[in-house]
Amino acid sequence: MSQPVFFDTHAHLDYPEFQADFTEVLRRAQAAGIAKIISIGTDLDSSSRAVAFSEKHSMVYAAVGWHPANAHEAPADIRAELRKLARHPKTVAIGETGLDYYRLPSTQGGSTDADEEYELKQAEIFQQQLEVAAEAGLNCVIHQRGDCFAETVALLKPMADKVRGVFHCFAGTPGAVQEVLAMNSLVSFTGIVTFKNGQNVRDALAATPLDKFMLETDCPYLAPVPYRGKRCEPAYVKEISEVVATVKGCTLEELSAVTCRTALEFFPKLGP
Ligand SMILES: [Zn+2]
After folding, report:
1. Rounded to an integer, what distance in angstroms lies between the CA atom of residue 259 and that of residue 255?
2. CB–CB of 47/64 below 8 Å?
3. Digit-coded pLDDT (tens) for 59-107
4. Cα separation of the two ends of the chain
5. Fewest beta carbons less than 10 Å away: which of 63, 102, 128, 243?
């Protein structure tokens, strides 16, 4: 019996945690039925590394972008560099981008002026990435953390006829799921769905139609049960898929078919 195939749509393969056993990590993913992995860029160097991996490994694809938590380190305009990376045949998306108000400067002894500057810079480079995505005909991998869901939606919405987003590592309410879907965007779920204290995420998953979400690890973070607390890797999409199938009341084969179809449609360059 062949095992169901899944994709890891969000992995940080370029992080130092994977340097020592990179080839083994890919081999274990393949053995677990994880056929494709999207390595996510968090700045221009990280994005270039994702592209380089994609050239070297057939199962690896790249998303190129600048993470909001690093926005303060970004040059004023990242569009030209990003456009070059976006043209690569294995660049399937722009991101991760979005907003992150989780650690505002004021929570670490900074001023509220510093908060404003930080939020403004995040919004600027998010908008630049939406613009490049629209030009390149790519969708965006959206990171949203902290109290800024409404702000994130407000920036994406005016572009919604040109760019779709996947709200990755989704942990919002069922109502927030509806807002995302109303923009023709999607959500994706990580190993948090397996956590004992992850009921809110299981509720969000239950409220999401079967063809409106994708699976991801966000590795090296967020290893699912029974690996919780350890380094996460793409092979663990298998453990995530088992819990997701239970919550959705479907078979692994159905989940495989629908989530792979959703990913291939959302990231057209990921196909065939
Ligand atoms: Zn990430």
Report:
1. 6
2. yes
3. 999 999 999 999 999 999 999 999 999 999 999 999 999 999 998 999 9
4. 23
5. 102
Whole-number Å distance, alpha carbon 106 to ligand 1 midpoint, is 24
pTM above 0.70, yes or no: yes
Q: Is the dihedral of CA 47, 258, 208, 182 positive or negative?
A: positive
Span from the CA of 10 to the centroid of ligand 1 (angstroms): 6
Q: How far is the CA of 78 from the centre of ligand 1 (A)?
A: 19
The runs of H, that is alpha helices, within 103-161 are 112-136, 149-156
**Residue 1, pLDDT above cutoff 70:** no
| Integer CA distances (angstroms), 229 to 29, 71, 195, 223, 225, in order | 19, 27, 11, 6, 9
Instruction: Answer for the pair 224, 240: CB distance below 8 angstroms, yes or no.
Output: yes
Q: Which residues surround ligand 1, an ion (CB under 5 A)?
A: 218
- Do 186 and 141 meet the contact criterion of CB atoms below 8 Å apart? no
CB 250 within 8 A of CB 235: no
- Geometric angle at alpha carbon 263, from 157 and 234, rounded to 5°: 115
